[in-house]
Amino acid sequence: MERIFAAIAFSILFLFLAGCQTAPMQSEQSPTNQQPLSSSPSVPEQENDSFIAEASSYLAPVRWWDQGRQDPVRELVTETPEQLVARVPVRSDPKIVILMYHNIVFGRTGGEYNRDLYNFEHDLVFLRNRTAIIGIDDLPSIKSGEKKLNTDASILTFDDGDLSIYAIVFPLLKKYDIKATFFIITDFVGTVGYVNWEQLKEMSDYRNVKGEKLFSIGSHSLDHKRFDEIPAEQIPHELAESKSVIEKNTGAPVWYFALPFGAGSGRKEIIDAARNAGYRGIRSSTTGALQPGSLDLYNLPVFYMSNERADLLAQQIYSLLGR
Fold first, then answer.
1. Which region among 71-85, 100-114, 126-140 has the lowest average model confidence (pLDDT)?
2. What is the pLDDT of residue 109?
3. How far apart are CA 159 and CA 182, in angstroms?
4. Looking at the domain assignment, is residue 36 inside a domain?
């Protein structure tokens, strides 16, 4: 019996102590505008809510391209070449735009030279829908009149030799069967963050199911120094040596040179040195479109593909083409 009374007393004591630790109930007579400390949002939470709202409004226009209905991979891969050609508008005055990319990255980035993969794929959708994507090696035959254009055309180029051209761009363009030229800084090859010679050779050697060569390697100089800041006598060496190094390691001829920073475009001594080294053309960084009937192969303008939204760049490209 004593044990029973002791157990009852212990239970009562436990319940009493537990009740002392419970927060008191708020009185019904408390003012209605009085709130517990934890019920109103803190300033950081309010700021975070604002940030989320701003982020949503910023992300929404990025989705403008598909509006939930268009899958760039499906559109590019599953449509037949005939279907794609049929969608490209016929032009009586076709123009050509050369696009200059640098790095392609996963996810969003603030880097000016970085283009995220999502927007890059939508670039390809726009270009395939509105232009014929050709290779830079097609320009001499277009200039001579041997190759005729009846649509606007675009050319993809990538500067520097960032590792992303092998890890991301190469597989993607193989899948989509799209041509491109990669301008390489030869002294950077094989260093951290850049492609190596084995990868470049694999890209250069690739042929599609039709046996067509899709990718060409061009020179972007030995060490990416501005041609308006180095001694004039050094320029022929930069042109000839970088070309020779690429050809030796890839086994393919190098026909085009991209000026580092676009510096020195149009200068006669640079053009003469490029001709003497065996180049067929020079790509600058000057913004512009090409007229097939008046091509200047040694002063090729470009459109710089920054990290802007795909729809904004598409509008700018269309404006550049005069459409």
1. 71-85
2. 64
3. 6
4. no
